[in-house]
Amino acid sequence: MTETVDWGPIRALARRVLTEGERLALTRKEKALLKRTAAEVGISASEAKSALATEEGALGLLQEESRRIREGTRRLMDALHRMYQHKDKGDFVSARQEMRDVLEVEVVPHYRAIAQGQLDAMADEP
């Protein structure tokens, strides 16, 4: 999944529900958002469908989607920062390892694609 993702709406929903305590109203719009985001963060369609069957399940799905986005963002940004530091020192072995480490644990397709792209871009480096 290399296309651009827009996680603004899911982040706003998570903030309202998980931080501000707003009730999760399972409207068509919110269900569609949760279902779309599930696919974008590596949650299967069947798992999302099952979660959306109940308000409690939908809340758990929202929490998991939010967690994957938040943790994946931190993991990738930290690894990219270290990767650039290694590259600046000419240490491409360590730079490549930073991206391999992300790929070992990351489940969000968008973040995996970024890490793989960075790794591929260093293929011709020493």
The number of helical runs is 6
Basic shape: elongated
Please estimate the helix content.
over 70%
Q: What summary fits the major beta sheet?
A: none
Structural class: mainly alpha
Record keyword descriptors for this entry.
single chain, 126 residues, mainly alpha, 6 helices, elongated
Overall description:
The protein starts with 7 loop residues before the first helix and ends in a 5-residue tail after the last helix. With 126 residues, it is mainly α. The longest helix is centred in the middle third of the chain and has 34 residues, at 55-88. It is elongated, with a radius of gyration of 17 Å. The protein has six helices and no strands.
Secondary structure elements and pairings:
Blueprint: H1 8-19, H2 28-40, H3 45-51, H4 55-88, H5 92-105, H6 109-121
How would you concisely characterize the structure shown here?
The chain has helices at about 10-20, 30-40, 45-50, 55-90, 90-105, 110-120.
